[in-house]
Amino acid sequence: MIQSSNEWFDDQSYWKNNRSFIWTKQRITNSGIGARYAMQLLGACQGDSVLDLACGFGRHSFEFYRNGFSVTGVDLNSDFISEAKLKVIETEASIRFIQADMREFVEPESYNHIVMMYNSFGYFKNPMDDRRVINNCFRSLLPRGKLLISAMGREINQRHMPSGESRHWWEKDGKYRLQECLFNEKSSQLSIKWILLNGSVSSTFNYDVRLYSKQEFLDLLTEVGFDDIQFYGSLKGTPYDGEAHSLVVTAQKPG
Predict the structure, then answer these.
(1) Which of 36, 61, 91, 100 could form a disulfide with 73 if both were Cys (CB 3.0 to 4.6 A apart)?
(2) Domain 8-153+212-252 CATH superfamily
(3) How do residues 208-250 score in pLDDT, each as one tens digit?
(4) Does domain 156-208 match CATH 2.20.25?
């Protein structure tokens, strides 16, 4: 059993203080568009079962439901799951939300599709935990079920941050955020520091994400047992090339 850790994603203050920067109003508004593109890439049919893994407060889960899918949302964050469950009551939506660690969550042969949207993969210190998540997805999919992961590809990061370092300022709702990034070529981890300024109050948050290249995703998914692995440069299905904005990978469990 995975024990509670001191890793950054266990810090509720990180999510509370940075929410408006992570999920802007525009990003939330566009959730429906992203959900529809994802289902198109997967070739999903109305009535199919969808697992929204690392669902957060359910912004994509509710869109999948509105488009006619049977939806389960899973996230480690208890506050987000409580928020999503409250919205289920308010909207009378038939969505199941579960608080669970993706390294542990398995429901064998239960889903037509599993999605990890918006950079929800690669957060763990141990790369074997990433493999464990992919293996759990493989087990939870029905035969010929499909997995979709939307991530920041290593190639994209190298293109936008050739020196391996960057620094940027943002302003949102009267708050300022300084972002400092450092990429470790050996571990493939992108370490990010956010310094949040709210009036005279300053807060510092750190998080890490492991970036995978196209080839590394191919190797990982193949080793677990997936086939028909496809790569795209966006949820729209554009090519994964020098103009790509993200790395979107789909893979199928053999029938």
Answers:
(1) 61
(2) Vaccinia Virus protein VP39 (3.40.50.150)
(3) 999 999 999 999 999 999 999 999 999 999 999 999 989 999 9
(4) yes
